[in-house]
């Protein structure tokens, strides 16, 4: 099966293996830590799997890398346009995410996503690397971070430590929002480092 390197599946296939290798983890150990089946991980690394938000965020948490280190990035130019119809959607139990851009400035790395929470649905996360910022554009969004819960409307903003368990719930129809994930530059796994494409930990 041929997989485009520019697709979400293609980018994840290439980056996941390199990230796993850099951490010195076998497929079995990554499966144990992420609670993702070994067969599923093998499919993701071969580009034949269908990644979900839950899967990608779990891998981000276990491998301790930003989402964009798994999904790659688009080169920045003087004018960068990302068309909605040309961007693949990463879906989960309650949320559809479209990766738009990664911004690097000094020690800060910010990933920009178009986020839609489906009507009446809830998206749970055990936590992952970085700080999460969400700006609601339309609808009413319930945000729970560990034991704290808030309700947001259009124009409202929330920020929290993304390593804490959290969830988003659409309270009244679909919620449209902008999601920003912020990291420190040193949290990034530089996948172009020498040796990463070399020998791999045992597949077992």
From TrEMBL:
Coiled-coil ranges (or none): none
Organism superkingdom: Bacteria
SMART domains assigned: HTH_XRE
GO MF entries: DNA binding; DNA-binding transcription factor activity
UniProt GO cellular component terms: cytosol
SUPFAM superfamilies, A to Z: lambda repressor-like DNA-binding domains, RmlC-like cupins
Keywords, sorted A to Z: DNA-binding
UniProt domain HTH cro/C1-type: residue ranges: 16-70
Tagged with keyword DNA-binding: yes
Protein known as: XRE family transcriptional regulator
């Amino acid at each position: 099966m041929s997989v485009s390197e520019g697709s979400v599946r293609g980018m994840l296939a290439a980056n996941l293996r390199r990230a796993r290798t850099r951490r010195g983890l076998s497929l079995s150990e990554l499966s144990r830590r992420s609670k993702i089946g070994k067969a599923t991980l093998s499919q993701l690394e071969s580009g034949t799997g269908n990644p979900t938000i839950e899967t990608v965020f779990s891998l981000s948490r276990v491998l301790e890398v930003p989402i964009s280190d798994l999904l790659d990035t688009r080169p920045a130019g003087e004018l960068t346009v990302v068309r909605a119809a040309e961007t693949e959607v990463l879906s989960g139990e309650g949320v559809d995410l479209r990766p738009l851009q990664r911004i690097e400035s000094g020690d800060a790395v910010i990933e920009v996503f178009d986020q839609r929470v489906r009507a009446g649905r809830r998206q749970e996360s055990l936590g992952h690397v970085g700080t999460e910022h969400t700006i609601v554009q339309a609808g009413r969004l319930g945000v729970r971070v560990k034991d704290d819960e808030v309700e947001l409307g259009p124009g409202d903003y929330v920020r929290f430590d993304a390593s804490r368990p959290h969830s988003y719930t659409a309270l009244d129809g679909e919620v449209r929002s902008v999601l920003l994930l912020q990291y420190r530059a040193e949290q990034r796994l530089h996948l172009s480092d020498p040796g990463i494409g070399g020998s791999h930990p045992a597949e077992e």
